[in-house]
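Worked example 2:
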Amino acid sequence: LVQGAEAFLDGYHAFLLLAGKTGAYEVRSLRDEIPTLSNRFEALKQTIRSSLEAIILLLDDGKNRQITFHQWLTACQQLQSSLQALNPKEAEQVRSVHELIFALHWRFVDALAPIT
């Protein structure tokens, strides 16, 4: 999912660059969002890495301690939230990989609208 979102973001950026520097205002404003979306995505990837590490450490921390199902479930739910929260409104508010994908999809559709 993360690799697919990364490819989608790269492709979206490449598509917007096709308009060149003289593109319509709508395309320029979408292109201006790319750094924000990229920064949010980098933060999401770090959150996902941390969540995965927490899950792995809970399963094998080298101390053979007993973990509770509740601890494991909480760590998995935090990872799920990083992947699946859905409320994309603005680039600055992207909180999950799914939100990034939805935001890119709707912006891509909006960018194509003047063409069709």
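The chain has one domain: 2-112. The CA atoms of residues 4 and 28 lie 24 Å apart.
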